[in-house]
Specification:
Strand order of the largest sheet: 1-2-3-6-7-8-9-10
Order of helices and strands: HHEEEEHEEEEHEE
CATH topology of the largest domain: Porin
Number of domains: 2
Strand content: 35-45%
Helix content: 25-40%
Shape: rod-shaped
CATH class of the largest domain: Mainly Beta
Number of strands: 10
Number of helices: 4
Largest sheet: 8 strands, antiparallel, barrel
Length: about 300
Protein backbone atom coordinates (compact mmCIF):
# COMPACT_ATOMS: atom_id res chain seq x y z
CA UNK A 1 0.00 0.00 0.00
CA UNK A 2 1.45 3.42 -1.06
CA UNK A 3 1.31 6.34 1.32
CA UNK A 4 -0.42 9.59 -0.06
CA UNK A 5 2.14 12.43 -0.24
CA UNK A 6 1.61 16.16 0.36
CA UNK A 7 1.78 16.78 -3.41
CA UNK A 8 -1.10 14.40 -3.88
CA UNK A 9 -3.09 16.18 -1.20
CA UNK A 10 -2.41 19.62 -2.79
CA UNK A 11 -3.43 18.34 -6.21
CA UNK A 12 -6.67 17.01 -4.82
CA UNK A 13 -7.25 20.32 -3.01
CA UNK A 14 -6.68 22.30 -6.24
CA UNK A 15 -9.18 20.16 -8.06
CA UNK A 16 -11.71 20.73 -5.35
CA UNK A 17 -11.01 24.50 -5.46
CA UNK A 18 -11.66 24.60 -9.20
CA UNK A 19 -14.81 22.62 -8.74
CA UNK A 20 -15.93 24.98 -6.01
CA UNK A 21 -15.09 28.06 -8.09
CA UNK A 22 -17.50 27.07 -10.83
CA UNK A 23 -20.61 28.12 -8.86
CA UNK A 24 -18.93 31.44 -8.14
CA UNK A 25 -18.21 32.08 -11.78
CA UNK A 26 -21.66 30.87 -12.63
CA UNK A 27 -23.23 33.33 -10.21
CA UNK A 28 -22.88 36.15 -12.68
CA UNK A 29 -22.20 39.69 -11.74
CA UNK A 30 -24.08 39.58 -8.40
CA UNK A 31 -21.37 40.40 -5.82
CA UNK A 32 -23.39 39.23 -2.82
CA UNK A 33 -24.27 35.95 -4.30
CA UNK A 34 -20.72 35.48 -5.52
CA UNK A 35 -19.22 36.14 -2.08
CA UNK A 36 -21.61 33.76 -0.39
CA UNK A 37 -20.96 31.07 -2.91
CA UNK A 38 -17.23 31.58 -2.47
CA UNK A 39 -17.46 31.20 1.33
CA UNK A 40 -19.52 28.05 0.93
CA UNK A 41 -17.01 26.69 -1.53
CA UNK A 42 -14.09 27.53 0.79
CA UNK A 43 -15.84 25.84 3.73
CA UNK A 44 -16.48 22.74 1.67
CA UNK A 45 -12.87 22.79 0.48
CA UNK A 46 -11.57 23.13 4.04
CA UNK A 47 -13.80 20.23 5.14
CA UNK A 48 -12.47 18.09 2.31
CA UNK A 49 -8.89 19.02 3.21
CA UNK A 50 -9.51 18.16 6.89
CA UNK A 51 -10.97 14.79 5.88
CA UNK A 52 -7.99 14.07 3.64
CA UNK A 53 -5.56 15.04 6.38
CA UNK A 54 -7.36 12.74 8.81
CA UNK A 55 -7.33 9.89 6.29
CA UNK A 56 -3.63 10.55 5.70
CA UNK A 57 -2.94 10.30 9.44
CA UNK A 58 -4.92 7.07 9.64
CA UNK A 59 -2.98 5.62 6.71
CA UNK A 60 0.32 6.67 8.27
CA UNK A 61 -0.70 4.97 11.54
CA UNK A 62 -1.72 1.83 9.64
CA UNK A 63 1.55 1.85 7.69
CA UNK A 64 3.56 2.14 10.89
CA UNK A 65 1.64 -0.80 12.40
CA UNK A 66 2.28 -2.90 9.30
CA UNK A 67 5.97 -1.95 9.31
CA UNK A 68 6.24 -2.86 13.00
CA UNK A 69 4.59 -6.22 12.27
CA UNK A 70 7.00 -6.86 9.39
CA UNK A 71 9.96 -5.99 11.61
CA UNK A 72 8.69 -8.36 14.30
CA UNK A 73 8.24 -11.17 11.78
CA UNK A 74 11.73 -10.52 10.40
CA UNK A 75 13.18 -10.77 13.90
CA UNK A 76 11.32 -14.05 14.47
CA UNK A 77 12.61 -15.40 11.15
CA UNK A 78 16.15 -14.37 12.04
CA UNK A 79 15.79 -16.06 15.43
CA UNK A 80 14.54 -19.27 13.78
CA UNK A 81 17.43 -19.18 11.33
CA UNK A 82 19.91 -18.85 14.19
CA UNK A 83 18.23 -21.73 16.01
CA UNK A 84 18.40 -23.92 12.90
CA UNK A 85 22.05 -23.09 12.46
CA UNK A 86 22.68 -23.80 16.15
CA UNK A 87 20.96 -27.22 15.95
CA UNK A 88 22.62 -28.22 12.69
CA UNK A 89 25.96 -28.90 14.40
CA UNK A 90 24.50 -31.03 17.26
CA UNK A 91 22.52 -33.05 14.72
CA UNK A 92 25.69 -33.72 12.76
CA UNK A 93 27.45 -34.69 15.98
CA UNK A 94 24.61 -37.06 16.91
CA UNK A 95 24.80 -38.67 13.48
CA UNK A 96 28.47 -39.31 14.08
CA UNK A 97 27.68 -40.81 17.49
CA UNK A 98 25.00 -43.20 16.18
CA UNK A 99 27.44 -46.10 15.50
CA UNK A 100 28.90 -45.74 19.00
CA UNK A 101 25.42 -45.66 20.54
CA UNK A 102 24.45 -48.76 18.57
CA UNK A 103 27.55 -50.53 19.87
CA UNK A 104 26.70 -49.52 23.43
CA UNK A 105 23.17 -50.84 22.99
CA UNK A 106 24.63 -54.09 21.68
CA UNK A 107 26.90 -54.30 24.74
CA UNK A 108 23.91 -53.73 27.02
CA UNK A 109 22.02 -56.50 25.24
CA UNK A 110 24.99 -58.83 25.73
CA UNK A 111 25.11 -57.97 29.44
CA UNK A 112 21.40 -58.70 29.75
CA UNK A 113 21.94 -62.10 28.13
CA UNK A 114 24.94 -62.75 30.39
CA UNK A 115 23.34 -63.16 33.80
CA UNK A 116 25.51 -62.57 36.91
CA UNK A 117 23.90 -65.17 39.21
CA UNK A 118 23.28 -68.85 38.51
CA UNK A 119 21.77 -71.71 40.48
CA UNK A 120 22.31 -75.18 39.12
CA UNK A 121 22.88 -78.89 39.52
CA UNK A 122 25.67 -81.25 38.50
CA UNK A 123 25.44 -84.98 38.13
CA UNK A 124 27.70 -87.69 36.80
CA UNK A 125 30.36 -90.17 37.91
CA UNK A 126 32.86 -89.77 40.72
CA UNK A 127 35.75 -91.91 41.85
CA UNK A 128 36.27 -92.52 45.58
CA UNK A 129 39.37 -92.22 47.79
CA UNK A 130 41.17 -95.05 49.59
CA UNK A 131 40.78 -97.43 46.65
CA UNK A 132 37.03 -97.75 47.16
CA UNK A 133 34.78 -97.99 44.09
CA UNK A 134 33.23 -94.80 42.88
CA UNK A 135 29.62 -94.20 42.04
CA UNK A 136 26.88 -91.81 41.18
CA UNK A 137 27.63 -88.17 41.99
CA UNK A 138 25.27 -85.23 42.30
CA UNK A 139 25.68 -81.69 43.56
CA UNK A 140 24.00 -78.30 43.84
CA UNK A 141 25.83 -75.03 43.33
CA UNK A 142 25.47 -71.26 43.42
CA UNK A 143 27.65 -69.26 41.02
CA UNK A 144 28.02 -65.47 41.06
CA UNK A 145 30.06 -63.20 38.79
CA UNK A 146 32.74 -61.28 40.66
CA UNK A 147 34.74 -59.31 38.07
CA UNK A 148 34.26 -58.74 34.32
CA UNK A 149 36.50 -57.59 31.46
CA UNK A 150 35.39 -54.04 32.27
CA UNK A 151 37.16 -54.47 35.61
CA UNK A 152 40.37 -55.45 33.86
CA UNK A 153 39.95 -59.24 33.51
CA UNK A 154 41.47 -60.07 30.10
CA UNK A 155 39.20 -61.91 27.67
CA UNK A 156 36.50 -62.94 30.12
CA UNK A 157 35.33 -62.76 33.73
CA UNK A 158 35.85 -64.25 37.19
CA UNK A 159 33.09 -65.90 39.19
CA UNK A 160 32.84 -67.45 42.63
CA UNK A 161 31.03 -70.72 43.21
CA UNK A 162 29.87 -72.66 46.25
CA UNK A 163 29.19 -76.35 45.61
CA UNK A 164 27.87 -79.09 47.88
CA UNK A 165 28.29 -82.60 46.45
CA UNK A 166 27.56 -86.21 47.38
CA UNK A 167 29.22 -89.36 46.03
CA UNK A 168 27.16 -92.55 46.32
CA UNK A 169 29.94 -95.17 46.22
CA UNK A 170 29.38 -98.72 44.96
CA UNK A 171 29.71 -101.92 47.01
CA UNK A 172 32.83 -104.05 47.31
CA UNK A 173 33.93 -106.96 49.48
CA UNK A 174 36.68 -105.95 51.88
CA UNK A 175 38.17 -106.81 55.24
CA UNK A 176 38.93 -103.15 55.94
CA UNK A 177 36.89 -103.09 59.10
CA UNK A 178 37.54 -103.85 62.77
CA UNK A 179 35.39 -106.98 62.94
CA UNK A 180 37.18 -108.62 60.00
CA UNK A 181 40.59 -107.65 61.33
CA UNK A 182 39.71 -109.30 64.65
CA UNK A 183 38.68 -112.41 62.79
CA UNK A 184 35.07 -112.17 63.85
CA UNK A 185 33.65 -112.00 60.33
CA UNK A 186 35.09 -112.66 56.89
CA UNK A 187 35.30 -109.98 54.25
CA UNK A 188 32.00 -108.20 53.96
CA UNK A 189 30.26 -106.01 51.39
CA UNK A 190 30.85 -102.38 52.19
CA UNK A 191 30.88 -98.98 50.46
CA UNK A 192 31.95 -95.40 50.95
CA UNK A 193 29.91 -92.18 50.70
CA UNK A 194 31.62 -88.81 50.40
CA UNK A 195 30.18 -85.41 51.26
CA UNK A 196 32.13 -82.48 49.84
CA UNK A 197 31.99 -78.71 50.23
CA UNK A 198 33.94 -76.80 47.56
CA UNK A 199 34.18 -72.98 47.31
CA UNK A 200 36.03 -72.20 44.07
CA UNK A 201 37.05 -69.27 41.87
CA UNK A 202 36.50 -69.73 38.13
CA UNK A 203 37.92 -67.92 35.13
CA UNK A 204 35.52 -67.94 32.17
CA UNK A 205 36.76 -67.15 28.68
CA UNK A 206 34.34 -65.13 26.49
CA UNK A 207 35.02 -65.79 22.78
CA UNK A 208 32.89 -62.78 21.78
CA UNK A 209 35.48 -60.49 23.37
CA UNK A 210 38.10 -62.04 21.10
CA UNK A 211 36.04 -61.37 17.97
CA UNK A 212 34.52 -64.87 17.79
CA UNK A 213 30.86 -63.86 17.77
CA UNK A 214 29.76 -67.25 16.42
CA UNK A 215 31.06 -68.87 19.65
CA UNK A 216 29.54 -66.29 22.01
CA UNK A 217 27.32 -68.90 23.71
CA UNK A 218 30.30 -71.19 24.47
CA UNK A 219 32.36 -70.29 27.55
CA UNK A 220 35.20 -72.58 28.66
CA UNK A 221 36.54 -72.10 32.16
CA UNK A 222 39.15 -73.23 34.68
CA UNK A 223 38.56 -73.51 38.44
CA UNK A 224 40.49 -73.92 41.68
CA UNK A 225 39.81 -73.62 45.38
CA UNK A 226 39.92 -75.25 48.82
CA UNK A 227 37.60 -78.09 49.82
CA UNK A 228 36.32 -80.00 52.81
CA UNK A 229 35.45 -83.73 52.63
CA UNK A 230 33.68 -86.13 54.97
CA UNK A 231 34.13 -89.78 53.96
CA UNK A 232 31.65 -92.27 55.41
CA UNK A 233 32.71 -95.98 55.33
CA UNK A 234 30.02 -98.50 56.17
CA UNK A 235 30.75 -101.15 58.80
CA UNK A 236 29.40 -104.71 59.07
CA UNK A 237 25.91 -105.25 60.42
CA UNK A 238 26.01 -105.27 64.22
CA UNK A 239 22.45 -106.02 65.29
CA UNK A 240 21.02 -109.53 64.77
CA UNK A 241 18.14 -110.31 62.45
CA UNK A 242 15.52 -110.54 65.17
CA UNK A 243 16.49 -107.47 67.15
CA UNK A 244 15.35 -103.88 66.85
CA UNK A 245 17.53 -102.03 64.36
CA UNK A 246 18.36 -105.23 62.50
CA UNK A 247 20.31 -104.54 59.32
CA UNK A 248 21.49 -101.11 60.45
CA UNK A 249 25.09 -100.28 59.64
CA UNK A 250 27.32 -97.86 61.44
CA UNK A 251 29.57 -95.51 59.51
CA UNK A 252 33.12 -94.52 60.28
CA UNK A 253 33.58 -90.81 59.48
CA UNK A 254 36.83 -89.49 58.05
CA UNK A 255 36.93 -85.67 57.75
CA UNK A 256 39.64 -84.39 55.42
CA UNK A 257 40.73 -81.01 54.18
CA UNK A 258 42.13 -80.50 50.74
CA UNK A 259 41.70 -78.69 47.47
CA UNK A 260 40.15 -79.01 44.03
CA UNK A 261 40.96 -77.86 40.53
CA UNK A 262 39.46 -78.57 37.15
CA UNK A 263 38.25 -77.56 33.70
CA UNK A 264 34.82 -77.17 32.20
CA UNK A 265 32.61 -75.37 29.76
CA UNK A 266 29.22 -73.71 29.78
CA UNK A 267 26.86 -73.41 26.82
CA UNK A 268 24.09 -70.81 26.82
CA UNK A 269 20.79 -72.04 25.41
CA UNK A 270 19.96 -68.54 24.18
CA UNK A 271 21.37 -69.65 20.80
CA UNK A 272 18.21 -71.76 20.41
CA UNK A 273 15.45 -69.63 18.91
CA UNK A 274 12.11 -70.84 20.25
CA UNK A 275 9.87 -67.77 20.66
CA UNK A 276 7.40 -69.44 23.03
CA UNK A 277 10.13 -70.17 25.64
CA UNK A 278 12.87 -67.77 24.52
CA UNK A 279 12.96 -65.85 27.81
CA UNK A 280 13.62 -69.12 29.65
CA UNK A 281 16.27 -70.20 27.14
CA UNK A 282 18.06 -66.85 27.51
CA UNK A 283 18.63 -67.68 31.19
CA UNK A 284 19.39 -71.41 30.86
CA UNK A 285 22.79 -73.10 30.55
CA UNK A 286 24.19 -76.60 30.16
CA UNK A 287 27.78 -77.66 30.58
CA UNK A 288 30.38 -80.31 31.26
CA UNK A 289 33.15 -80.45 33.85
CA UNK A 290 36.11 -82.42 35.15
CA UNK A 291 37.40 -81.95 38.71
CA UNK A 292 40.30 -83.46 40.56
CA UNK A 293 39.96 -83.67 44.34
CA UNK A 294 43.12 -83.91 46.42
CA UNK A 295 43.16 -84.54 50.16
CA UNK A 296 45.74 -83.24 52.56
CA UNK A 297 46.81 -86.85 53.29
CA UNK A 298 47.63 -87.51 49.61
CA UNK A 299 44.43 -89.26 48.53
CA UNK A 300 42.96 -87.99 45.26
CA UNK A 301 40.29 -88.85 42.72
CA UNK A 302 38.45 -87.38 39.71
CA UNK A 303 34.85 -86.43 38.98
CA UNK A 304 33.12 -86.16 35.57
CA UNK A 305 29.81 -84.34 35.48
CA UNK A 306 27.30 -82.54 33.35
CA UNK A 307 25.36 -79.50 34.57
CA UNK A 308 22.13 -77.61 34.15
CA UNK A 309 21.75 -74.12 35.58
CA UNK A 310 19.42 -71.13 35.51
CA UNK A 311 20.37 -67.50 35.92
CA UNK A 312 18.75 -64.19 36.75
Amino acid sequence: MHRPTKLTVLAMGLAISLAAARPTMAAGDDPARGAKAKRVAQQELQLKIDQLVEQNRALQTQNRAIQDQLNTQKQEIDTLMHQMQATAQPVATLQQQVPQMQQELSDVAKKQRSVPLEVGFRTGWSESPYGMPGGFYYAAFLNHRLLSHEDGIPGGFLSGEMLVGWTQGNHTNTTANLASELGLVPGVSTWMYTLSLQPTVQYHLEPALLGLESLAAFKPYALAGPAMYINLLSTPVVAGKHNSGAGYRHYDADPQGGGVYGLGFELGLSALKVPSIQRLLDKSFVGGEWRFNEYGNGQGYSQYTGSLSFGW
